[in-house]
Specification:
- This protein is α/β, with parallel strands linked by helices and 230 residues long.
- The chain has one domain (5-228): 2-enoyl-CoA Hydratase, Chain A, domain 1 (Alpha-Beta Complex), CATH 3.90.226.10.
- Helix content is 54%, strand content 12%.
- The protein contains 12 helices and 8 strands.
- The chain has helices spanning 11-24, 44-49, 52-71, 87-93, 112-115, 121-130, 136-141, 148-154, 164-176, 180-191, 201-215, 218-228, and strands at 29-32, 37-39, 76-80, 83-85, 97-101, 108-109, 145-146, 159-161.
- It has a 4-stranded parallel β-sheet, sandwiched between helices. A 4-stranded mixed β-sheet has the order 2-4-6-7.
- Helix 1 packs parallel to helix 3 (52-71), helix 3 packs parallel to helix 6 and helix 3 (52-71) packs across helix 11.
- The two termini are 24 Å apart.
Length: 230
């Protein structure tokens, strides 16, 4: 990934990620950040500045990006050598396999509830599919950030390794060696064929009507600004 500080998922980054995935044209993808951050989550500076109309556009783009990775027909492996927080952890979950570093300084988790925001429907579906049911309450409701060893135990990542990049490349090569049509068909059967399979348009519109006011509320903006001041 590129550009924004700690690979924050602002509108520009989300648009770039979708474009890069389209440019991959069905070839295998290795998604990596930096040793500082795979992605530290949504771009909080941008979020704090958005009015209701801007937030509506942003959340639609977020859903589009996460769905694009989740439904991409070829193998996608996430290499997590730095923090993967909130939206960053969702982006990793949208990949087929997640390999993380063993470095204890790294934090991985979904802290949306602690910020007072609601998961968009497609994002929540991805998380529910990719995080083991037994971990849902601690991971989602607890809103904690975990060291890689704990994230692995909870199912937030699939493997941890001292050399995460090398193992991620190995896993991608293994997946990529399978017959492409069989891989794509099986992935489709597991995850659906089109974006609407994750959440109906009507459900998304209702969620936006209900949730955009919460995402743009003074209380959420105050929490976001407090995080930015740390």
């Amino acid at each position: 990934m590129r550009g924004a500080a700690k690979n924050a998922l602002g509108s520009e980054m989300l648009t770039w990620l979708v474009a890069q995935l389209e440019a991959a044209n069905g070839e295998p993808v290795l998604l990596a950040g930096t040793r500082d951050a795979f992605s530290a989550g949504l771009n909080l500076k941008e979020l704090a500045s958005l009015d209701a109309a801007g937030m509506d556009r942003y959340l639609r783009l977020l859903e589009r990006c996460m769905s694009a990775f989740y439904l991409y027909p070829a193998p996608v492996v996430a290499c997590i050598e730095g923090h993967a927080i909130a939206g960053g952890s969702v982006l990793a979950a949208a990949c087929d396999h997640r390999v993380a570093t063993t470095e204890a300084r790294v934090r991985i988790g979904l802290n949306e509830v602690a910020l007072g925001v609601r998961f968009p429907p497609r994002v929540l579906r991805i998380v529910r599919d990719r995080v083991p049911r037994a971990s849902h309450e601690r991971v989602l409701l607890g809103a904690e950030l975990f060291a890689p060893s704990d994230a692995h135990a909870l199912g937030l990542v699939d493997e941890i390794a001292d050399d995460a990049a090398a193992l991620a490349r190995t896993r991608l090569a293994t997946f990529a060696a399978h017959p492409r049509d069989a891989y794509a068909a099986t992935k489709r059967a597991l995850r659906g064929t089109v974006d609407a399979d994750l959440a109906s348009d009507e459900a998304e519109e209702q969620w936006l009507r209900d949730s955009v006011p919460a995402w743009t509320s003074p209380a959420v903006k105050e929490r976001v600004l407090a995080v930015l001041k740390r």
